[in-house]
Specification:
single chain, alpha/beta, ion channel, TRPM
């Protein structure tokens, strides 16, 4: 009897060549059928977009039909250039049965909680066979929920045999949309595609209704990806891990290949998912000597489980024994009724298997944990005992954590001894500002005004300083725009090993290999690195990072108020663009959070020590353009903080100056102005209180001159010293306070006169009375006929106008310069 079908499962009559039945039968029997010999390679005739019609929402997926031996580098070009995918940071290849196995409900929940978490957080690619049956269906359903909840799309790639796909020829066409109904086929030899996949590679080796074409393509692609570096300059390759769920005979063969071939691939086995997975987990529980004695038991078990003969069962058992030789590459996770614990265990098992399977150093393991955003793995498996780290490894890890906005990792590194003062150099800070999320990509018109002076697309710290000046407003002058810093900046950048390359490229980061930035003591130019990093975090809208930088370092109140002002100014800038409503709302919420922090901090300090809290508001901040916290609160329009009792007490002290009157202040001051002999009878503060009075140093120069002479260097430094954080400010006495205790004496007559006439309340009433007299004399001068000789009202008017003009000129000259552009 002659054969009517070819080995490819098509009728012989459909093949080109027109062989008769006898020739066809002879050819099939005498010649082994090979795709390379018996198929013709042609350009693909099927690629485009599948529109799945089933369900309430249409889902789309990209697809392409390609030869089973297509070169993997061409497939990667398709992924990255045509489909716009980023390179994976992890590849999870799922192996399992194609039948609808048991434990579906339990396994589905576990897969959803663990696999979706890994794929969404690590930027992983998930490889399956793409068919709507067996384990692939469970994977698709699990990852569907993650795609709905998460803004980050999980990349699920189905690699399926073209000849198995139901109605595959309706997919033929060049770059067009194809409606597709993902309804289970009634014909068992065919299968439909799973609608929850993102991309499909349909491998064609010329066969029909046969599996196997996808295996070669999938394995070659996995090997190619696993040999690619994670990023330029990295020594780590893209990790690959196999997840074994259920499965049959072919699954055992595939797992054996993973753990024995090069490169070695770690495998995670789900014990309790059925069939091959349970069998392998059971074998791994026993030692090699025990397995030899249990050989007959396992062979019989394999025969019954997979319905194979004795010879095939023996072969499968030998494959299982080979797997046991690489126990270090196989991790078993048991599915239990405690779904939360099981999902976490599977989640960790997949990631830990990568770390242990590749024999990575501590720094390389940390790179993976950082890339996957799994601080729990870094805490439990990397930062253990007393590990030795290569020089600069922790600093480079800190740099990557800051760039990727990994707040928990920054906390972990700080806890494990990374010094920000040694870490933060000028080149590193500038590199942080040149990340993809840099401020010049967010602030629209202001950034364009400033950034046009930059070279290429790189922003310098001087540009950042100009931006800060613009946002802070008024007379604020950033440290980055001061001449002193410019000289330091030029010297530091010249010492950077990559200085010439950096300025010859289009961005700061593109030309800087890892570890090339200098970290010498001369470049550690920031005494308060957390201040600089807080400003960076605010300008790049990294709120959680900004909160972490606020919690560390000094000048907590000042940092909170600066953040308020910057967020407020950024919100005003974004408000001009009506299409960015969400960004505007986020900035306002960030500002409110820092406003609450500043208010709570001041209230805490006020309840602990009133005098220290008042100093906290009025101490001059050298690191913040010599502003005070009170000035920053006014600039940030923090009305709640200005209305706080501590702020009101400071304002009242500033208003009264050296006077200590509590009742009838205005009447006593007016009477003192009209009758100077009454001034000595007024109540004045003691010299100790005057030294603590929140006013400018010049106003107390008369009675602080001796103190300045005796402690010239130390007192000046302490007077201008930056405010420490709340704890040190409350529990440590300042130098000025100790000196004031030794000068607890009343003021002399001259000091009383000086204190009276320099008090703001005295100046106010003095100017008010003088202005009233001016109005009266001016009106009299205008209404009454002028005499040849100037009368005293006329002289008073002339003198008043001249002195007023001189005062205005003096104020202009003595005030800080204000930016006009």
């Amino acid at each position: 009897m002659y054969k009517t079908r070819c080995y490819c499962n098509r009728p012989l009559s459909l093949h080109c060549g027109g062989l008769d039945d006898a020739d066809s039968n002879r050819t099939v029997e005498e010649e082994l059928w090979m795709p390379s010999t018996h198929t013709q390679l042609l350009p693909t005739d099927a690629f485009g977009t599948i529109e799945f019609q089933s369900g309430t929402h249409k889902r789309k997926a990209q697809y392409v039909r390609l030869a089973h031996d297509t070169r993997p580098e061409l497939i990667m070009q398709l992924f990255t250039k045509e489909w716009g995918l980023e390179l994976p940071k992890l590849v999870i290849t799922v192996e399992g049965g194609k039948s609808n196995f048991g434990q579906q409900r339990k396994l589905g929940r576990v897969l959803h909680k663990s696999l979706s978490k890994i794929a969404g957080a690590t930027g992983a690619w998930v490889f399956t066979d793409g068919l709507n049956k067996g384990v692939t269906r469970q994977i698709g359903d699990a990852l569907l929920l993650e795609n709905v909840k998460s803004s980050a799309q999980v990349i699920v790639i189905g690699i399926a045999p073209w000849g198995i796909v139901e109605d595959c020829y309706q997919l033929c066409g060049h770059n067009h949309d194809v409606p597709y109904h993902s309804i289970s086929s009634l014909r068992p030899e065919y299968a439909v595609l799973n609608k929850h996949h993102s991309y499909f590679l349909l491998a064609d080796d010329g066969t029909l209704r046969r599996y196997g074409a996808e295996l070669v393509l999938r394995r070659n692609l996995e090997k190619y990806i696993s040999n690619q570096k994670l990023h330029p300059g990295s020594q780590c390759c893209t990790p690959l891990v196999c997840l074994m769920i259920g499965g049959g005979c072919n699954t055992i063969r595939t797992v054996r290949d993973y753990v024995m071939d090069t490169p070695l691939v770690p495998v995670v086995v789900c014990d309790g998912s059925g069939r091959a997975a349970d069998l392998l987990a059971s074998v791994l529980e026993h030692e090699q000597t025990v397995l030899e004695s249990m050989r007959n038991y396992f062979v019989t078990l394999i025969q019954n489980m997979f319905e194979v003969d004795m010879k095939q069962a023996e072969c499968l058992y030998s494959l299982l024994l080979q797997c046991t030789q690489r126990k270090n590459l196989i991790t078993v996770v048991r599915l239990t009724d405690q779904q939360e614990e099981t999902s976490q265990e599977l989640d960790l098992a997949i990631l830990k298997s990568v770390l242990t399977g590749q024999h990575l150093s501590s720094s390389e393991q940390f790179d993976f944990a950082l890339m996957w955003n799994r601080v729990d793995i870094a805490t439990s498996d990397i930062f253990i005992c007393q590990q030795e780290w290569p020089p600069g490894a922790l600093e480079e890890a800190m740099m990557q954590a800051l760039k990727l906005d990994r707040v928990d990792f920054v906390k972990l590194l700080l806890k494990n001894g990374v010094s920000m003062q040694k870490f933060l150099s000028v080149p590193r800070l500038e590199e942080l500002y040149n990340t993809k999320q840099g401020p010049f990509k967010k602030l629209g018109y202001i950034s364009r005004q400033i950034h046009h002076i930059s070279r290429g697309n790189m922003c310098t710290l001087h540009d950042v300083g100009l931006l800060i000046n613009k946002l802070m407003g008024g007379s604020y002058k950033s440290y980055y725009t001061q001449r002193k810093f410019q000289l330091i900046y030029a010297r530091a950048m010249r010492k950077s090993l990559d200085f010439q390359q950096s300025y010859g490229t289009t961005s700061m980061t593109s030309g800087l290999p890892r570890g090339t930035l200098l970290t010498s003591n001369e470049e550690n130019l920031f005494d308060y690195p957390f201040n600089e990093l807080l400003v960076w975090a605010v300008l790049t809208e990294r709120q959680q990072m900004a909160l972490l930088m606020w919690q560390n370092g000094e000048e907590a109140l000042a940092k909170a108020l600066v953040a308020c002002k910057l967020y407020n100014a950024m919100a005003d800038e974004v408000a001009e663009n009506h299409s960015e409503t969400q960004i505007y709302e986020d900035l306002i919420n960030y500002r409110k959070e820092f406003e609450n922090i500043a208010l709570e901090l001041l209230d805490y300090c006020y309840k602990q020590r009133v005098d220290q809290a008042k100093q906290l508001l009025t101490c001059e901040l050298q690191n913040w353009s010599k502003e005070t916290c009170l000035n920053l609160a006014v600039a940030a329009n923090h009305l709640a903080l200005l209305a706080h009792p501590c702020s009101q007490m400071v304002l009242a002290d500033l208003w009264r100056g050296g006077l200590c009157t509590r009742k009838s202040n205005n009447l006593k001051v007016i009477f003192g102005l009209l009758c100077p002999f009454y001034i000595p009878k007024l109540e004045f503060k003691l010299e100790e209180e005057l030294q603590l009075l929140p006013q400018a140093e010049e106003e107390h120069l008369v009675y602080l001159e001796k103190e300045h002479k005796s402690t010239e260097g130390q007192s000046t430094d302490n007077h201008h010293n930056t405010v420490a954080d709340a704890e040190s400010l409350i529990y440590n006495e300042s130098h000025n306070t100790r000196n004031a205790n030794r000068n607890n004496r009343p003021l002399s007559l001259g000091e009383k006169l000086y204190a009276f006439y320099t008090a703001p309340i005295t100046k106010y009433w003095g100017h008010s009375i003088a202005y009233i007299v001016f109005l009266m004399t001016f009106s009299y001068t205008v209404l009454v006929k002028m005499e040849n000789k100037p009368s005293w009202p006329e002289l008073y008017t002339i003198i008043y106008i001249c002195t007023l003009a001189c005062e205005e000129v003096r104020e202009i000259l003595s005030s800080k310069p204000v930016a006009l552009r």
